Known about the structure:
Blueprint: E1 2-11, E2 14-20, H1 22-27, E3 33-37, E4 44-48, E5 51-53, E6 58-64, H2 68-75, E7 81-82, E8 84-89, E9 100-106, H3 108-112, H4 114-122, E10 126-133, H5 142-148, E11 151-156, H6 167-177, E12 183-187, H7 190-200, E13 207-210, E14 226-229, E15 232-235, H8 236-239, E16 242-244, H9 250-257, H10 261-275
Parallel strand pairs: 9-10, 9-12, 10-11, 12-13
Antiparallel strand pairs: 1-2, 1-7, 2-6, 3-4, 3-8, 5-6, 13-16, 14-15
Helix pairs in contact: 6-7
This protein binds flavin-adenine dinucleotide (FAD) and FE2/S2 (inorganic) cluster.
Amino acid sequence: MAHILERRRLVPNIHLIRIHAPEVARRCRPGQFIMVMADPDGERIPLSIADWDAAEGSVSAVFLLVGTSTQKLARLKAGDALAACAGPLGRPSEIAAFGTVLLVAGCYGIGALYPAARALRAAGNRLLLLADVKAGHLFYWQERFRELCDRVMTAERDLGGMSQEFASRTVAGVAAGEKRIDRVMVSGCAYLLASVSEATRPLGLRTIVSLNPVMVDGTGMCGACRCSIGGKTRFACVDGPDFDGHQVDWPELFRRRAAYLDDEIRSLCWWERETLP
Length: 277
Ligand SMILES: Cc1cc2nc3c(=O)[nH]c(=O)nc-3n(C[C@H](O)[C@H](O)[C@H](O)COP(=O)(O)OP(=O)(O)OC[C@H]3O[C@@H](n4cnc5c(N)ncnc54)[C@H](O)[C@@H]3O)c2cc1C
Ligand code: FES
């Protein structure tokens, strides 16, 4: 059991959850994740650690509402308990003085990249952030990133007609305007990871993606998160989640992520019928 200290909506479909988990908070590093279970009948799902406070013994995650488990998490409030919270899991992101690092983040990835941004800044890097958001008001934690980054940019698809840019198209423009980019780090939905990797490949920019295959145990035992990286089988939970985006077999990742789609839709329909007024 892990108690919830805070759960609040950041923007319409994205929530923050702060959990009392002192063992996790003491040991976690940028790029790692936790496995959480909203209730005893639910499934374990992975969430990236977006922040932590070792003194308070808390870890925070930012999550996007997609299916039953994330809807259940969004119903919890301070004082409630999670059925389980395990971590920190996964290998930490590589942090060093690379030079100029372009961070590309969308939806939950904006929060998920924050610890790496903080550590990269402390290591002396010049930081650029490109936030991939449907509209400006969906860009949460802007002030946190403006404190750390030398440039903060958005690729918005605002229906108001301000811009129709996807991050992958904008990346080439950003690179053209910069003397040098030494590394790109991407976090968010699988489409963003894959499309940015394809955009940086011809530019020869080393691109690290935080991979998000389906995970069940998060410890390398179940095989659910198997993916192919440079033609070799890897388990994202113990070998990643960070990988070279130019080495990932993206079609396989998309196929495996969609493997339970029918069951996931059925589960959400059932849960909504049972719980919504
Ligand atoms: C290392 C890692 C870190 C992640 N960090 C975050 C995060 O910080 N915030 C966030 O919102 N999301 C994160 N995700 C994705 C998150 O785990 C899924 O959105 C969540 O499991 C969906 O559960 P659901 O029941 O709400 O949706 P479902 O209806 O069950 O699934 C919707 C889609 O989410 C994906 N998914 C489903 N179950 C899992 C699972 N057990 N593991 C991974 N993907 C799954 C599948 O593509 C699926 O088609 C992360 C995934 C990984 C692997
Ligand atoms: S989640 Fe089970 S092996 Fe990675």
